[in-house]
Specification:
Helix content: 55-70%
Strand content: under 5%
Order of helices and strands: HHHHHHHHHHHHHHHHHHHHHHHH
Structural class: mainly alpha
Distance between the termini: 78 Å
Number of helices: 24
Radius of gyration: 28 Å
């Protein structure tokens, strides 16, 4: 097991995609009684706190989903570890490797607030009955778990309890505002969030909690930045905390908020979010570098069943400007348009409309509108509809539905700010497409 000890001590064993990590996790999944598992359980008692942390991190994913009593027992022994991060990891492992009853028993016996808070966090809804716990962070999590499933008539009582517990709970519980915001979003309590942020920001003791809740609201609700940006700026004061700076950065992602409160962000210091990269190659240059002869030559070198073609808008645009497509060229354009969804389909659909005429509109729109909310390719489809102009009027309900959403589109990115920016980009593309379609008044 020398290789395992070295990998754990160096941090390689917890480095994503590192061969040693893959080998260890494969061994754990294959045999929880094998030499790798036995050695990792021993390393949870190592003299080096870093090694103990790494061992806990490796045991956790192999425990998730099915009980592992030996790992749970090893983790319980470390709930009083002198290293805080070891205690956090041990608490998570107790929940993942042990049963619910084992974790609740540990929560009742351990006195360390870090370990108890982490146990309660990972137990989730199982702590709803602990609203009278001696630790504020556990009480806060219990109230949140109760609120998540509570009927509306119980909301005011639970809101007051959460407001009361929040300042003290934040001493041991990270992300109080974020956690609160997620529950309120699940209950679709948008306007309650705005009122709660105003109250939290108005108290210096809960300022950062309010900023965290405001940031989460901006991630969840499209109107939140417009509502909350003035509040955030007003309560910045002389100094600006990291939580407030992050909230301002997130709120500034909203084009609507920046239009509505154009002068406000300049009055406080914060780091703007990097501007997104717009879709590359989606719009051809104003004057094509191809004429009919050169475009035809390029297409002759490509197969009929072509699936992708970098300069398709320019090539087919040049041919359609000069006259009808040949049968082979039309077949190529057909394959580019109808064979698979994606950027190429979105760019070629308006060209197929030019070739086939208005009778093709229903089929094209049936291909295009389902992808408008796709964060990877939706902007291309919005641009394609914009190019189709008045012919795309039947797509206006789909565009309007996307524009009128109160919540952010479900997207996937490395960060919540990145996801918010993707939604903003899709929203801007949809607005521009609707504007272009309505502005096209040709015959």
């Amino acid at each position: 097991m020398k290789w395992l000890d070295e990998a754990v001590a160096a941090g390689d064993a917890t480095t994503p995609a590192h061969p040693s990590r893959i080998a260890i996790l494969d061994a754990l999944l294959a045999d929880r009684t094998g030499p790798v598992a036995v050695r990792l359980l021993q390393l949870t008692r190592a003299g080096d706190a870093f090694v103990r942390r790494e061992a806990m991190d490796l045991l956790s994913p192999a425990s998730h989903g099915s009980p592992w009593p030996e790992a749970a027992e090893a983790a319980e022994a470390r709930l009083t570890d002198p290293d805080e991060e070891v205690r956090r990891r041990a608490a998570r492992l107790v929940v993942w490797a042990g049963s619910r009853d084992v974790a609740l028993k540990a929560l009742g016996e351990v006195t360390d607030p870090v370990a108890r808070t982490t146990l309660a966090t990972w137990l989730g809804g199982s702590v709803a009955h602990l609203q009278d716990d001696p630790l504020a962070s556990v009480r806060f999590l219990a109230h949140l778990a109760t609120l998540r499933a509570a009927p509306p008539e119980q909301w005011p009582t639970l809101d007051r309890a959460l407001l009361s517990e929040a300042p003290e709970a934040a001493r041991h519980l990270d992300g109080v505002g974020w956690r609160w915001g997620r529950v309120l979003y699940g209950l679709r309590r948008e306007h309650h969030v705005y009122a709660l942020v105003a109250r939290l920001l108005g108290d210096p003791a809960t300022l950062d909690i309010g900023a965290g809740l405001a940031r989460e609201a901006c991630h969840d609700w499209r109107a939140a930045p417009v509502e909350l940006l003035p509040l955030l700026v007003r309560h910045c004061g002389r100094g600006i905390s990291p939580a407030m700076a992050e909230a301002l950065t997130t709120a500034s992602l909203s084009e609507a908020a920046m239009r509505a409160h154009r002068a406000l962000p300049a009055t406080v210091p914060f780091t703007p979010y990097p501007k997104p990269r717009r879709p590359s190659g989606s719009l051809p240059p104003p004057s094509s570098s191809y004429d009919r002869v050169t475009a035809a030559a390029v297409l002759r070198a490509e197969p009929v069943g072509i699936g992708r073609l970098l300069r398709a808008p320019e090539l087919f645009g040049a041919l359609l400007d000069a006259g009808p497509l040949t049968f082979r060229q039309a077949a190529q354009l057909y394959n580019l348009t109808f064979k698979r969804p994606g950027r190429m389909q979105a760019l070629c659909a308006p060209l197929w409309l030019r070739h086939a005429g208005p009778t093709a509109v229903p089929r094209l729109l049936a291909l295009m509108t389902p992808h408008l909310g796709n964060y990877g390719i939706g902007e291309y489809y919005a641009e394609g509809l914009a190019r189709m102009g008045r012919h795309a009027r039947p797509a206006l309900p789909s565009l309007t539905a996307l524009i009128d959403r109160r919540t952010r589109l479900p997207v996937n990115d490395a960060t919540r700010d990145g996801e918010t920016m993707l939604d903003e980009s899709l929203l801007a593309a949809a607005i521009e497409a609707r504007r272009a379609i309505l502005a096209d008044t040709g015959p």
